[in-house]
Structure formats: structure tokens, C-alpha cells
């Protein structure tokens, strides 16, 4: 029987969008609270401050790595390692996420390039975060190490 697990996070924001700031907290894991600001979102870098897009990228990279490693194991070719990065584009003028580029490098014994690419692409389509983001263009660069 399917079982739903709920993970919780929260954000507290003070002030308006441009001058305001906030914090987002990983409530379920209690792993931390992170500072947020419009500047981090709109200028691509503000050390010590994150953005919704960076957090989304972390979630997508984690989900993809988990999905890909499971699919490789089901194929009889469990990975030694799977390293995934997610670059999330945000259009300031339009106020929207423009796309996500997943880049994965994996060490796997006993798999050929065609199977590797096929499974990598299937993992991109079937990971739960990819499914949740179906309205966004998601690309993949997969390298067999």
C-alpha cells in the first residue's frame, strides 16, 4: 500500500521584495536555516545567501542522483558513484524559471555507453522532482567516467 511521507520547510520574509530579506528553514531534517534575498536571486551571487532556484537545484540534483542510481542497480549495473549538478535559470524580467540543466558524471562497471545514456535519460524523465517540474525545460548532459 502506498504511503505518503511529508517533508516540511518554511520561510520567514521581512520587508518588500527588493530591500527585504528572509530565512528558509529545513524543518523536517532540522539541518539548517538559510538566508534569502532578492539580490541572491537576481544578481547570481551573494555569498552566504541562497535563492529559491539554488534550493530547487539542490533538490533536483539529489532526486535525480537517487533515481539514476536505483535504475542502474535495477539494470544489474549498480554505480560506484553518481555526481549530479543542477543549473537552474531564472529570468528576472519575466519572473520565471527558464530551465534546468542537469549534469551527471557516473562511475559504473559493466555498462556500455548506449545503455548508460538510455538509463540516464529515463531517470531524468522519471525522477519525482522532474515530474513535478514538467512545465520547465529540463536538459541532461551525462558522462560515463
Automatic annotation (TrEMBL):
Molecular function GO labels: peroxidase activity
Classification via Gene3D superfamilies: 3.30.300.20
One BP term from GO: response to oxidative stress
InterPro entries, sorted: KH_dom-like_a/b, OsmC/Ohr_fam, OsmC/Ohrsf, OsmC_Ohr_Peroxiredoxin, Peroxiredoxin_OsmC
NCBIfam families: osmo_induc_OsmC
Protein name: Predicted redox protein, regulator of disulfide bond formation
Protein source organism: Brachybacterium faecium (strain ATCC 43885 / DSM 4810 / JCM 11609 / LMG 19847 / NBRC 14762 / NCIMB 9860 / 6-10)
Lineage, broadest ranks: Bacteria, Bacillati, Actinomycetota, Actinomycetes, Micrococcales
